[in-house]
Amino acid sequence: MTSDEKAEPTRVEEPRGRRLAFLSLAALGVVYGDIGTSPLYAIRECFHGTYGIEVTHANILGVLSLVLWALLIVVTLKYLSYIMRADNRGEGGVIALTALISPQRRTRSGRILVLGALGLFGASLLYGDGMITPAISVLSAVEGLDVATPILAPYVVPITIVILVALFAVQRFGTGGVGAFFGPVTLVWFVVLAALGIRSLASNPEVLAAVSPHYAVGFLLRNHMVGFLTLGAVFLVVTGSEALYADMGHFGRRPIRLVWYCVVLPALLLNYFGQGALLLRHPEAAHNPFYNLAPAWALYPLVGIATAATIIASQAVISGAFSLTRQAIQLGSCPRMRIEHTSSEEIGQIYVPFVNWTLMIATVGLVLIFRSSHTLAAAYGVAVTTTMTITTALFFFVARERWGWGRLRAGLPTVLFVIVDLSFFGANISKIGHGAWFPLVIGLIVFSLLSTWKRGREILARKFAARMQPFDEFFATLDAATIPRVPGRAVYMTSTSSGVPPVLLHNLAHNKVLHEEVVLLTVVTEEVPRVPAGEKFELEDLGHGFFQITAHYGFMEDASVPHLLGAAKAKGLDLTMAETSFFLGREALFARKKDGLAAWRLALFRFMSRNALGATTFFHIPRNRVIEIGAQIEL
User: Fold this and answer.
1) Of 346, 300, 265, 348, which is closest to residue 36 (Cα–Cα)?
2) Are the C-beta atoms of 274 and 196 separated by less than 8 Å?
3) DSSP class of residue 263?
4) What is the pTM of this model?
5) CB of 486 within 8 A of CB of 515?
6) Closest CA relative to residue 182, chosen from 39, 315, 41, 18
7) What is the mean pLDDT of residues 283-300?
8) With DSSP H G I counted as helix, E B as strand and the rest as coil, what are the percentages for the chain, rounded to 5?
9) Which string of b and e fits 18-38 if b means at least 16 CB within 10 Å?
10) Cβ-count burial of 380 within 10 angstroms (0-12 exposed, 13-18 middle, 19+ buried)?
11) Which residues 6+ apart lie within 8 Å of 266 measured at CB?
């Protein structure tokens, strides 16, 4: 391991002044939307949920103490203080973290493969979370209409579905136009949370005693198993914590931390403690303590601002699913899909149609099946706790192997976080029979797809490498034979630059000619977010009219062949699109021996291969310049 690999993340210049204020406001809308809407249902689920605890003075203080220390340990200590140190050149998230452990050029040991699979499973679980978050968030906001007047109760589900369908329908237009309102609207939301909490706390300030952790410990000791199971509801206050880490590349550490300490944490605690104060006065309000905080005249405006806040929270989750999919595609764990850029200025604003409509169908289906945020809450949490536990494990190995931390320095926080993570996981896994199976099933399905694709592509790459002819042998044959060279330029796309690609050999065998200039183009996705401009492009003259271009991209970047041709021209190789033909291989997969993939995985891989987006579209190559040559590959 090199000294560079053991170094801790490079310190980048932190934003200041107006830029810090702008990024902080933007982070408030994108990063904290999910965790900021938890007050709508978290306290309610503790006392009125699947394992609702009795509304007593001691239980209220115990739950509030658990809420406070969950926020401090999970969000403040774990994510803001430790996990956010593990950045992959500024980017965060479970895929970026996994890439830190298993860079492509490192020998893949058994442990590295296991950790890589864990990271992939953690990422897969986030899709299930992406389906539940919009459903429970919007539904819990609209349910305020039922509190305002029971007459509107039958319309809660239809209104929720209309909002969700509209939300997914506008994704193709991008979020650039409305994104500017995310921060201000979310800021208003947190101000409202704080105001409602302060209003209630003024009547019962004694709940502030719950700051002492002994109330949390006493609650768990007094209530035994029921108290432990209540942790599944308490965990709802920290759902969305992964967003702090995943969105680090968009805003940086400083704005995310600043907003948490100055706005989000105070507003959340004021509201949660305000709900606790309300329950001391009116235990019967446990069926919806959030909306019961507001005076009657404010209910309808509160429903409006809550709905806006939940739409923003849902938008952040949807955008996160798009970004996660692109990372998986670029790292070879997902078949190529159509990715549309919705902004000419912000490269991170993308739209993935297949993911969007899949999420919409699943989200609307969840609303129709569960029909209330109360029943949906039982399905929420288990996927997130699993991902959090995986993140903790991956962080430990990054700290030990990349940064050279000692066992004590890396182990002590890891042990604390694992105890907390597994406690929440154990409490949530008990809800399997109440709907928690759904995100786990989704995660397993997605993991099966991604792992099958990754394994299949690895086998294919090995098969192709075995069929490649070394350059010296090929050029010796070329010199000995009389092969006509026709005018023009040909570009052969190949997955590796270690030899002559099979598609060129197939073309030569069938057509008996070569172009005067032949370019072998290899696009390499590095396991870093972005590759510096000066390191993106390599051009090598192989002689005999052959050139090798190797393009390096990060997993947050999109490869574009027209852009590469422009870079080649700057290096002295003029590849005019109108005079260049592109030769691509199209594999026909068949099985003769079962030494690669299991039969069901082979069938799945073949199905995904047939439906994957072609290289022509993915790399933005004009269709009228492409020639595809088929080949049979035994898998």
Assistant:
1) 265
2) yes
3) I
4) 0.81
5) yes
6) 315
7) 91
8) 70, 10, 20
9) eeeeebbbbbbbbbbbbbbbb
10) buried
11) 194
- Owner of token pair 């605690």: 269
- Per the listing, tokens 């798009």 go with 322
Please give the torsion angle defined by the CA atoms of residues 365, 367, 373 and 379, in that order, rounded to the nearest 10 degrees: -10
Strands 546-553 and 580-590: unpaired
Q: What's the pLDDT tens digit per position in 168-221? A: 988 887 655 556 678 889 999 999 999 999 999 999 999 999 999 999 999 999
Give the separation between CA 29 and CA 307, rounded to whole angstroms: 14
Express each pLDDT in 374-385 by its tens digit: 888 877 888 888
**Using CA atoms, how far apart are residues 522 and 279, in angstroms rounded to an integer?**
64
Which residue(s) pair with 540 in the sheet?
548
The per-residue pLDDT of the chain, averaged, comes to 84
CA distance 342 to 555: 18
**Residue by residue, what is the 3-state secondary structure of 356-390?**
HHHHHHHHHHHHHHHCCHHHHHCCCCHHHHHHHHH
CA distances (Å), 308 to each of 137, 142, 187, 190, 274, in order? 10, 10, 12, 12, 22
Decide the pairing of beta strands 485-493 and 340-341.
Answer: unpaired
Distance (Å, whole) CA 344 – CA 338: 17
pLDDT band at 5 (very low <50, low <70, confident <90, very high): very low
Section 57-66 average pLDDT:
95
Give the bridge partners for 631, in sequence order: 587
Give Cβ neighbours of residue 116 (< 8 Å, ≥ 6 apart). 98, 101, 102, 108
Name all domains of the chain by residue range, CATH numbers in brackets: 15-457 (1.20.1740.10), 468-634 (no CATH)
3-state secondary structure 503-531: HHHHHHHHHCCEEEEEEEEEEEECCCCCC
